[in-house]
Amino acid sequence: MVLRPFVSWRLVSRRCGARWAKWAERGPCVGMARSGSDMAEFRKVFSKAKHIVVIAGAGVSAESGVPTFRGAAGYWRKWQAQDLATPEAFFRNPSRVWEYYHYRRELMLTKSPNAAHVALAECETRLSRQGRSLVVISQSIDELHCRAGSQHVLEIHGSLFKTRCISCGDVVVNQKSPICAALEGKGSPDPNAEDANIPVELLPRCEKSTCNGLLRPSVVWFGETLNSDILTQVEKELDICDLCLVVGTSSIVYPAAMFAPQVATRGIPVAEFNLRTTPATGRFRFHFSGRCGTTLPLALERHESEVI
Ligand SMILES: [Zn+2]
């Protein structure tokens, strides 16, 4: 399968999403089955799958109470993610953007993986003993899949808990709370909160002795390209998968929105688990409406054919 063009794709949504929706509304591809919600039929397919790819989105995190900062209610102060998660916003006001990410990091200390995260992690562990694999391609940056115990996670949009130095490029895991002294107690989401206006030298800095460059969150911002090494791994996983699950994603953020439809065109079964149908639903073999924390544990529980 050819995914190479995605390597240079940038993170986009909204306008392209609307275009995608129009395209998807034209209906399923010729020869493709309409999506169904027969769990027994899905379980048969699941029992035979050797390489399962799970494309997981913000909907899984939302069931743990993690805000997306998008949509009508999704504001931090006066802004939404697309106003702050950009290189331009960071270089214009790194203090404000760091307050926003500090808030999101601290908030995650109060959140836990939910039944959907746990079902995926347990399924991966179980299948690995049988010589089968399950990989999560995550669009979330909150690391809840890893915290639930998933081993094989491709974080295509990066992580809240990694930083990247804008001088030397060094990417490191950083789980400090607070990430730096100057951000302690800052980052209130209240629309009336004042900017902290932290001097740039007091924001998180690179700890390499000769560098001391300004750090930024190691996440993919709007307008930025996705990490090509990770996309190469994604491509490999999509190439070998024989079952694809699309979990808690509205299928409008590119390029992830293209992954499952590409797999479906090869005749690989795709099952969508989401609160409601999406623009891509008609292209998939299965659709299960409802909370992922309810539907996924049932879908992925031990099958009677599993002997280990
Ligand atoms: Zn550095």
UniProtKB/TrEMBL annotation:
<keyword id="KW-0479">Metal-binding</keyword>
<feature type="active site" description="Proton acceptor">
    <location>
        <position position="157"/>
    </location>
</feature>
<feature type="binding site">
    <location>
        <begin position="57"/>
        <end position="76"/>
    </location>
    <ligand>
        <name>NAD(+)</name>
    </ligand>
</feature>
<dbReference type="GO" id="GO:0008270">
    <property type="term" value="F:zinc ion binding"/>
</dbReference>
<dbReference type="GO" id="GO:0005829">
    <property type="term" value="C:cytosol"/>
</dbReference>
<feature type="binding site">
    <location>
        <position position="165"/>
    </location>
    <ligand>
        <name>Zn(2+)</name>
    </ligand>
</feature>
<feature type="binding site">
    <location>
        <position position="206"/>
    </location>
    <ligand>
        <name>Zn(2+)</name>
    </ligand>
</feature>
<keyword id="KW-0539">Nucleus</keyword>
<dbReference type="InterPro" id="IPR003000">
    <property type="entry name" value="Sirtuin"/>
</dbReference>
<keyword id="KW-0520">NAD</keyword>
<protein>
    <recommendedName>
        <fullName>NAD-dependent protein deacylase sirtuin-5, mitochondrial</fullName>
        <ecNumber>2.3.1.-</ecNumber>
    </recommendedName>
</protein>
<dbReference type="Pfam" id="PF02146">
    <property type="entry name" value="SIR2"/>
</dbReference>
<dbReference type="GO" id="GO:0070403">
    <property type="term" value="F:NAD+ binding"/>
</dbReference>
<dbReference type="GO" id="GO:0005634">
    <property type="term" value="C:nucleus"/>
</dbReference>
<dbReference type="InterPro" id="IPR026591">
    <property type="entry name" value="Sirtuin_cat_small_dom_sf"/>
</dbReference>
<keyword id="KW-0496">Mitochondrion</keyword>
<feature type="binding site">
    <location>
        <position position="168"/>
    </location>
    <ligand>
        <name>Zn(2+)</name>
    </ligand>
</feature>
<dbReference type="InterPro" id="IPR026590">
    <property type="entry name" value="Ssirtuin_cat_dom"/>
</dbReference>
<dbReference type="InterPro" id="IPR029035">
    <property type="entry name" value="DHS-like_NAD/FAD-binding_dom"/>
</dbReference>
<feature type="binding site">
    <location>
        <position position="104"/>
    </location>
    <ligand>
        <name>substrate</name>
    </ligand>
</feature>
<comment type="function">
    <text>NAD-dependent lysine demalonylase, desuccinylase and deglutarylase that specifically removes malonyl, succinyl and glutaryl groups on target proteins. Has weak NAD-dependent protein deacetylase activity; however this activity may not be physiologically relevant in vivo.</text>
</comment>
<keyword id="KW-0808">Transferase</keyword>
<dbReference type="GO" id="GO:0005739">
    <property type="term" value="C:mitochondrion"/>
</dbReference>
<keyword id="KW-0963">Cytoplasm</keyword>
<dbReference type="GO" id="GO:0036054">
    <property type="term" value="F:protein-malonyllysine demalonylase activity"/>
</dbReference>
<feature type="binding site">
    <location>
        <position position="101"/>
    </location>
    <ligand>
        <name>substrate</name>
    </ligand>
</feature>
<feature type="binding site">
    <location>
        <begin position="274"/>
        <end position="276"/>
    </location>
    <ligand>
        <name>NAD(+)</name>
    </ligand>
</feature>
<dbReference type="GO" id="GO:0017136">
    <property type="term" value="F:histone deacetylase activity, NAD-dependent"/>
</dbReference>
<keyword id="KW-0809">Transit peptide</keyword>
<dbReference type="InterPro" id="IPR027546">
    <property type="entry name" value="Sirtuin_class_III"/>
</dbReference>
<dbReference type="GO" id="GO:0036055">
    <property type="term" value="F:protein-succinyllysine desuccinylase activity"/>
</dbReference>
<comment type="similarity">
    <text>Belongs to the sirtuin family. Class III subfamily.</text>
</comment>
<dbReference type="InterPro" id="IPR050134">
    <property type="entry name" value="NAD-dep_sirtuin_deacylases"/>
</dbReference>
<feature type="binding site">
    <location>
        <begin position="248"/>
        <end position="250"/>
    </location>
    <ligand>
        <name>NAD(+)</name>
    </ligand>
</feature>
<keyword id="KW-0862">Zinc</keyword>
<feature type="binding site">
    <location>
        <position position="292"/>
    </location>
    <ligand>
        <name>NAD(+)</name>
    </ligand>
</feature>
<feature type="binding site">
    <location>
        <position position="211"/>
    </location>
    <ligand>
        <name>Zn(2+)</name>
    </ligand>
</feature>
<feature type="domain" description="Deacetylase sirtuin-type">
    <location>
        <begin position="32"/>
        <end position="306"/>
    </location>
</feature>
